[in-house]
Amino acid sequence: MNILETYIVPPLEAPIRLSDLRAGTFSLIVSRKAFTKLIKANLVHVNNNLSTTATPLLGGEIITVFRDQTPIKKPSIKIPLEVIYEDEYLAIINKPPGVEVSGNKRYTIANALDKALKRSNQEDALQRPEPIHRLDYPTSGCLLIGKTSTSVMMLNRAFQEKKIDKVYYAITIGKQKTNGTIKSPLEGKSCISHFEVIDTVASIKYEALNLVKLIPETGRKHQLRKHLAAIQNPIMGDNQYGTDGNKGMGNGLYLHAYSINFIHPATALTISEHIKLPKKFTRIFKQIRL
Description:
- It is built from 5 helices and 16 strands.
- By secondary structure, it is mostly beta strands.
- Among the domains are: 3-66, Structural Genomics Hypothetical 15.5 Kd Protein In mrcA-pckA Intergenic Region, Chain A (Roll); 166-256, Pseudouridine synthase (2-Layer Sandwich), CATH 3.30.2350.10.
- Strands 7, 8, 9, 10, 11, 12, 13, 14, 15 and 16 form a 10-stranded mixed β-sheet that branches.
- The longest helix is centred in the middle third of the chain and has 12 residues, at 149-160.
- The chain is elongated.
- The mean pLDDT is 92.
């Protein structure tokens, strides 16, 4: 088995259980829940002995965490995917609308990545690259992919620590304030979205259509869609949260993940990529240059 990480337990005032090690003890394991999962998968040894969650720690023990190399049995399909950036550690693809990122269905982005991307030459290369975050089924644009187990863990941590910046663009309906911040909680959790209207055109059906720049501070499910609907400016084509008759001319949801910016987990260089607006946007806002 390949070693993921080792740790020497410092002197302790009193014995503790292995599973009670505090979050952040390991640089590549993002939570106690993830660590417990590795223990139960027999991937954690204490002083070269297989451990359990109840293994006592007195101080001075060497904890070795191994990589999970269990063969993954999932379907592998082919979806034409535009690769915006790729190296041995990660990739950024242009997710097309109308495809789930992951889940139990066969036709997902996750099941197409092993054919769309090159296999990493790193020691901890994943059998199948993994999406780091999700985009809704009808949303297009930048989707970050991890190609090694270390990259996946570090990028997940960067998301948790809000160190990955994303910018979206949407077309909303109705007269809208020039800019603002929406702080409506979702599912009892804090939630913040910033918006700026870039341009507006008159509409007989909707009164106005707005090209809106969106920056989410948090990442709740359907956050941008729910927040814009809450201020009475739903995204065009949003049949779930929009108003009656908001069909978006049959072109689906007008929401696009335009750019992503973060520090590369292996090189420490800044990665900043963007994907131009789909044609359905530029047919309405013809003179826009972002």
